[in-house]
Design goal:
This protein is mainly alpha-helical. The chain is 75% helix and 5% strand. It contains 17 helices and three strands. It has a three-stranded antiparallel beta sheet with strand order 2-1-3, covered by helices on one side. Strand 1 and strand 2 form a beta hairpin. Helix 8 runs parallel beside helix 17, helix 12 packs antiparallel against helix 13 and helix 13 packs antiparallel against helix 14. The chain is elongated. The termini are far apart.
């Protein structure tokens, strides 16, 4: 999204200048109004909010702000605010103790924003790559309700769960990924070097070769002569896929397909629904209205297909339908979850039951992730066996036939 340089006046009439990312100048104006500021001038700029006068080399060497940095920031803010430390002093202390230089700059910008009379949520919103819209919305609710320190604690646990789930999936996929890369490298070496050597030997026999051997030799010849074309096609396919999933329709289609992938599809679906349930429970407990909460939660489920279903639920609630009915219409929840939603809606304890739903999905995700390697290993073994069988038949059948012919002579 483009950046917009703006000039605005706060409630005291002070002129404030800054840079805000947004889809359009109208959207930036809405953000300014929501932060209690009246825009005076908004113009497109090529400079980001925290770039200042840095060169492109400085920006290239900047440390990346990770989820761990945001998680620690949330925990430390909770501890400091709960201890009664003023927010400006708390931010100053965190800025001095931060090891990540990029995080230091973000904290400096937040302090300057607060010093200019802006709210903390508005200051965080100036850094969308660091603080998600969900994070900003929760902080805004915390400011309105006076429970800012509790919001920071809940966001710490939320980010911690997200990090734990991602780390578990990465850990489970490490071994299968290594095996697949090794198999791909082996196939490339065999096609480029091994089969051509055997092909020269077979050519000297002037004998009829088996069909499998002919296929392997033809495949090897194609790889040897057209490997630059193959590499270009692979690279083009990768970049084409990345470009396609960056489009709204492409990402929607890919997110729908991801939920149906064998082995990992159910894990992705359950992790996404756990994220939805936990986010909804967090928003509800923080005092966010259900309709607004649905809109915020739809932005953080990290799956456009599920987000579309959540938006459909929000529209149904706006029309006066019950949460249970909209959840049934969404078609992504299990009967057990729908039963818990019905009980929660009837008893008025929906946030507690949504938290239980999140924990239930999280336990299922943790169990499936722990057993992911065990599920993938048989598939890899079968694939490796098929590969070895094809190579054995293609390479050794001609030798076997020639050996039998020699014995008969």
């Amino acid at each position: 999204m483009p950046f917009f340089a703006y000039k605005a006046r706060n409630g005291r009439g002070d002129l404030i200048e800054g840079i805000q990312e947004g889809p359009s100048s109208a959207a930036v104006a809405d953000v300014l109004f929501s932060g209690g500021m009246t825009p005076v001038q908004i113009e497109v700029t090529t400079r980001g909010p925290a770039e200042g006068q840095e060169s492109w080399l400085d920006r290239l060497q900047q440390e990346k702000i990770t989820n761990v940095d945001v998680m620690l920031f949330s925990r430390q803010m909770y501890t400091l605010l709960k201890a009664g430390v003023p927010i400006m002093r708390a931010l100053g202390g965190l800025q001095e103790s931060a090891h990540n230089k990029s995080m230091k700059k973000v904290l400096q910008d937040i302090r300057e924003s607060l010093d200019s009379g802006r709210e903390l949520s508005f200051a965080l919103q100036r850094h969308p790559s660091v603080f998600s819209s969900f994070y900003v919305s929760m902080v805004r609710v915390g400011e309105a309700t006076g429970l800012l320190e509790e919001v920071f604690l809940r966001m710490f646990h939320y980010i911690e769960f997200e990090k734990k789930t991602r780390d578990q999936i990465k850990s489970a996929m490490r071994y299968p990924t290594f095996v697949i890369i090794a198999m791909a490298a082996a196939i490339a070496i065999i096609n480029l070097f091994v089969i051509p050597s055997f092909a020269k030997v077979y050519k000297g026999f002037n004998a009829e070769l088996p069909a499998m051997t002919k296929i392997l030799i033809a495949s090897s010849d194609f790889t040897v002569h057209y490997w630059p074309l193959l590499m270009a096609m692979i690279v083009g396919a990768i970049f084409g896929f990345k470009g396609y999933v960056k489009t709204s329709q492409g990402k929607l289609n890919w997110d729908r397909i991801k939920l149906k992938l064998p082995v990992v599809g159910s894990i992705i679906e359950k992790a996404t629904l756990a994220r939805f349930a936990r986010s909804f429970a967090l928003a509800s407990r923080s005092g966010v209205p259900i309709v607004q909460g649905m809109s915020v939660v739809a932005k953080v489920v990290d799956n456009d297909f599920i987000a579309q279903k959540v938006e459909g639920m929000r529209e149904g609630i706006e029309r006066g339908e019950s949460i249970l009915r909209t959840a049934v219409s969404a078609g992504v929840f299990t009967p057990v979850v729908l039963q818990m939603v019905a009980v929660g809606e009837e008893s008025g304890a929906l946030d507690d039951l949504m938290q239980e739903i999140a924990e239930m999905y999280e336990r299922e995700v943790e169990y499936e992730v722990e057993n992911l390697s065990a599920k993938i290993e048989p598939i890899l073994i079968v694939g490796l066996g098929v590969l070895v069988l094809i190579l054995a038949l293609g390479v050794f059948l001609p030798i076997w036939d020639l050996g039998k012919a020699a014995l008969h002579k």
